[in-house]
Amino acid sequence: MYDTVKGSDWLGDQDAIEYMCRMAPEVVVELEHFGMPFDRTDEGKIYQRPFGGHMSNFGEKPVRRACAAADRTGHAMLHALYQRNVRANTQFFVEWMALDLIRDDSGQVLGVIALEMETGEVVAFHAKATVFATGGAGRIFYSSTNAFINTGDGLGMAARAGIALEDMEFWQFHPTGVAGAGVLITEGVRGEGGILRNSANERFMERYAPNAKDLASRDVVSRAMVTEINEGRGCGPNKDFVLLDITHLDPATIMKRLPGIREISIQFAGIDPIKAPIPVVPTCHYQMGGVPTNYKGQVVADDGTPVKGFYAAGEVACASVHGANRLGTNSLLDLLVFGKSSGDSVIDDLKSGTIGLKELPVDYAERTMARLNRLNTQTGGADVNATRLELQRTMQKHCGVFRFKDMLSEGVAKILDIEKAVARTEIKDKSQVWNTARVEALELDNLIEVAKATMISAEARKESRGAHVRDDAPDTAANPNGRDDINWHKHTLWHRDANRLDYKPVIMKPLSVESIALKTRSY
Amino acid sequence: MEDRENLNRLRWRCTRRAMLEMDLLLGEFLDRIFPTLGPEQAAAFVTLADMEDLELWPLINGSRECADAVQAEVVALLRNVRVK
Fold it and tell me: Across the beta sheet with A109-116, what order do the strands follow?
């Protein structure tokens, strides 16, 4: 629990963090019973490995805590859980896109409106309970390790339905994504002796972290890379990446220890790393903020009361356990624990009669149909791909791994301009059946909501905390690491309505143990 | 379905998967290699694209062999794709 609180830079809610940590052994055992192929010790127990930031005794010494299935834990989990769905006869609506939440005048959520891509038909899914497990929105950035599907559809739907988005300024970046493609190059490459170089072929990490050099922590390496690029020492025609060099390593070592990386580099950078260095940039990896929920997986309004009929878990949700920076391995734990608790809450709320099937409001589809009609009739409008690219480049440049006051202010103005273009996107193909251009335009409607939430929340937060690092909030004696607890130890709530920002206190009281008091975060 | 509809559906299957690596590889393959395939190989690619990531990724990264000979030819082409 201490490691998660510390990782979050004390912005995580301690009731949710205690709940997640207490539930962790239970969900691991449950997964094991579902057939998850965890690695084993010689005695047949689940193998546990050390992981960055995992410590025992309140940060005293490293501990083996992370349960894993080789280097494919997430995939193995997906497989085990998918099989459970098959067993439960879950009906998947594949090749459908959810467009909007349905809420009535009391604010209760009564389902979603969705588009069937094969027919172009728009349908209401009238429901007693709606659970979002829609993932994050990493595609708001130009360089992202996220798959193309991560366009923040759940966040866009929630924002349009009047639900605030919490702590959206906090995004985790990985230092080494392949420039252009975004595909992740594991930290293990630097562990094996990989060196980062700038356009002068200099090993620049020696200046930023004289001891740890290329093996310094993720945020230190990422900021150093961005500084090199911003100061004109980037590589390539646009000077917008640095190089990860392993050409000095024995080819036999590369083939033996890093075979997957060699393949990724050849496939996605067109470079054999045995012969030439790999172009890399800090790349967006994980969204800490999201739709505000409590530890029961219920979506909550600004005052903490549950929004009836609405639940969320995983990257779309903000419980908040990750606060300003997620501890490694906690993304999978989050979705297991809160996926389960949201399901349990649905059952409890149904049993207690808190939720049930209510009539749909007369005008429930009006807003969605107006959006679709606008898209169908727009002429002389903006191109979807060009607008999305501009959004992604703006987010990367103005709200990336290292943030500057003036760049953030300019970024807000630019994103609000891009919003105007998004409101008048035009698609040439107006057909109903399998119209992917329409779906891409609808995805852009969601990306812009997340981009606004992120840029505006980041511009407003005048401190450095966790993954949100501002040049004008440096490390001082009064504010170590630039963190300002007096003014900024609070959650951001961005409302789509007039881009209004509110704040709410961080929950410092755990469920049963003593509170973990504020402390400087240093490793 | 018309050709446009079939191709749009295939493009969606190729570029809205759960892994960025797959989106990039299958998307690039669809643009550059797919138009050059004969009917048998094209059909095999459609079958591969319809697979879940958990089935397809092991074939692409070589941890599992393809049972079908034509599919194996297409997987070999896929593994040689270089994303620009």
Answer: A96-103, A109-116, A122-126
Query: Would you say domain B3-79 falls under CATH 3.40.50.720?
Result: no
Q: At residue B1, does pLDDT exceed 70?
A: no
Percentage above 90 pLDDT, chain A: 87
CB A236 within 8 A of CB A244: no
| Within-domain flag for A518 | no
Asked if A388 and A485 sit in the same domain, the reply is: yes
Model confidence pLDDT, tens digit, residues A174-204: 999 999 899 999 877 888 889 999 999 999 9
DSSP secondary structure letters along A52-89: EEEEETTTTEEEEEEE-STT-HHHHHHHHHHHHHHHTT
For residue A256 the two structure tokens come to 């033996």
Could you give the CA distance from residue A185 to residue A269 in angstroms, rounded to a whole number? 11
Whether B25 and A78 lie within 8 Å, measured CB to CB: no
Tell whether B18 lies on the interface with A, counting CB pairs under 8 A.
yes
B50 touches chain A (CB under 8 A): no
Predicted-complex ipTM score: 0.95
**Among A107, A100, A460, A479, CA closest to A309:** A107
Non-local (6+) Cβ contacts of A151 within 8 A are A137, A139, A443, A444, A446, A447
Position A253 scores a pLDDT of: 85
CATH of the domain at A238: 3.90.700.10
Residue A347 to residue A128: CA distance in whole angstroms: 11
CA nearest neighbour of A337 among A126, A101, A29, A44: A29
C-alpha to C-alpha distance for A129 and A187, rounded to whole angstroms: 41
Which residues of chain A have a CB within 8 Å of the CB of B61?
260, 263
Q: Taking a C-beta distance cutoff of 8 angstroms, is the pair A400, A138 a contact?
A: no
Question: A245 lies in which domain range?
Answer: 175-282
